[in-house]
Specification:
With 317 residues, the chain is α/β, with parallel strands linked by helices. It is 25% helix and 25% strand.
Length: 317
């Protein structure tokens, strides 16, 4: 169906889905190119940095910066260059024709280009105590937060390669890394499992689940209440940090299979940010299962915005 003249005049040059590090960097670059980008903030405004406490590995902040503050600074910077922001969840998208159509339920947005920077959400245990202590000893990123627990007892949850990688990395900092898994069999590859088992700092705790993270009253992690699923026996494990190694879910289901994904749902790109649909680009954790860092997300956000500018120039916009 063709657009009316009023609809054509309302077509955006670029819509950026996601307001984390990648989406906001893309917005800064697109804004500076005078493209007046629209950022759809999504279900988790600010992305994973919005629930991160100290960020010490983002260049330019020698004493570190709080995650929410970093995101707010980036948001203000994007707004300064003419970025529009809008809360909303995309119900579906039609990428079969240009301009692309994003359905937000109550209305639709038309755009000439699209940057998908919707990120990936960490899988959590779902315990109220766990959620209350995120950023206070509970983390889903060993690379981001392991440094803060030097000389401490650390726990990792999971039985796949992600958990083994987290545990091995955390041995650089922790005195002991307790790897807790609900079974005595593992999904991890043999090589990763053998490496973890061979490490003197890693202690396996199998057939066990976490019933509660201690201690909300102290506003920090002091230990875990564990339950053996075979015997029902309860025990407490004193630790200063709990890392979730049970994976991430890329936030791309709203695309309903219109773009290529890998077996875990991460968007497949070529040359860093190009998808199989011309004019649609992907950046950040929604397409990066390897690094998942704020700085790498920002880098691909920059790339996507620069490719958008080039694409629009080539198409006479």
């Amino acid at each position: 169906m063709s657009l009316t003249p009023a609809e054509i005049s309302d077509v955006r040059n670029v819509v950026i889905v996601g307001s984390g590090c990648s989406g906001l960097t893309a917005a800064i670059y697109a804004g500076r190119a005078n493209l007046r980008p629209l950022v759809l903030e999504g279900h988790e405004p600010g992305g994973q940095l919005s629930i991160t406490s100290d960020v010490e590995n983002f260049p330019g902040f020698p004493t570190g910066i709080m995650g929410p503050e970093l995101i707010e600074n980036m948001r203000k910077q994007a707004a300064r260059f003419g970025t529009d922001f809008r809360m909303g969840h995309i119900v579906s998208a039609d990428l079969s024709k240009s301009p692309f159509v994003l359905d937000l339920g109550r209305d639709k947005i038309h755009t000439r280009t699209l940057i998908i920077a919707s990120g990936a959400s960490a899988r959590w245990l779902g315990l109220p105590s766990e959620q209350a202590l995120i950023g206070k000893g509970v983390s889903s990123c060993a690379t981001c937060d392991g440094f803060f627990f030097r000389g401490k007892e650390i726990a990792v949850i999971g039985g796949g390669d992600s958990a083994m990688e987290e545990a091995l990395f955390l041995t650089r900092f922790g005195t002991t890394v307790h790897l807790i898994h609900r079974s005595d069999t593992f999904r991890a590859s043999k090589i990763m499992l053998d490496r973890a088992r061979a490490h003197e700092k890693i202690r396996f705790v199998t057939n066990t689940v976490v019933d509660e993270v201690l201690d909300i009253s102290k506003d920090e992690v002091t230990g875990l209440r564990l339950r053996n699923i075979k015997t029902g026996e309860l025990s407490e494990l004193p630790v200063s940090a709990l890392f979730l190694g049970i994976g991430h879910d890329p936030n791309a289901k709203w695309l309903h299979g219109q773009l290529d994904t890998d077996h875990d749902g991460y968007l497949v790109t070529r040359d860093y940010v190009f998808t199989k649909v011309e004019g649609v680009f992907a950046s950040g954790d929604v397409q990066d299962r390897r690094y998942r860092q704020a700085i790498t997300a920002a880098g691909t956000g920059c790339m996507a915005a620069m490719e958008v500018e080039k694409y629009l120039e080539e198409h006479g916009v």
